[in-house]
Amino acid sequence: MSKTILITGGAGFVGSNLAVLLKARHPDFSVIALDNMKRQGSELNLERLRKHEIIFMHGDIRNKEDLSFDDKGISLIIESSAEPSVLAGYNSSTEYVINTNLMGTVNCLELARKKKADIIYLSTSRIYPIKQLSEININEEETRFTIADDQDISGVTSKGISETFPLDGARSLYGTTKLASELIIQEYIEMFGLRATINRCGVIAGPWQMGKIDQGVFTYWMFGHYFNKSLDYIGFCGMGKQVRDLIHIEDLFELIDLQLCRMSDFNGNIYNVGGGNKCSLSLLETTQLCREITGNKIEMGKIEENREMDVRIYISDNSKVQKDTGWLIKKAPRDILCDIYTWIRDNDRILEKVLL
Ligand SMILES: NC(=O)c1ccc[n+]([C@@H]2O[C@H](COP(=O)([O-])OP(=O)(O)OC[C@H]3O[C@@H](n4cnc5c(N)ncnc54)[C@H](O)[C@@H]3O)[C@@H](O)[C@H]2O)c1
Question: Where does the record place a coiled coil (predicted)?
Answer without folding.
Answer: none
